[in-house]
Design a protein that fits this description.
It is a single chain. With about 70 residues, the protein is mainly α. It is about 50% helix and about 0% strand. Helix 1 packs across helix 3. The longest helix has 14 residues, at about 40-50.
Length: about 70
């Protein structure tokens, strides 16, 4: 599995909850709370470790959002 980066057209306040839903679909143990909590940060870092190893920081930046949208 390799992502094909994809853009999303969501309001800024919905990106976190959407990313959490995508992480859960992909198999990470994350609840869609809309807030970056410890579990979400850990899941983002694991996702980045696999799909974006040049920057593993647990931040839901634009590149991470596009990769996540492209893999789920």
């Amino acid at each position: 599995i390799w992502p094909h980066p994809s853009g999303l057209d969501l309001p800024d306040d919905e990106y976190v909850a959407h990313a959490q839903q995508q992480l859960a679909v992909f198999g990470y143990n994350v609840q869609a709370s809309g807030f970056i909590d410890a579990a979400t940060r850990a899941a983002l870092m694991a996702f980045q470790r696999r799909f974006r190893p040049h920057q593993i920081d647990g931040v839901l930046d634009e590149e991470t959002r596009k990769l996540l949208a492209g893999v789920t």
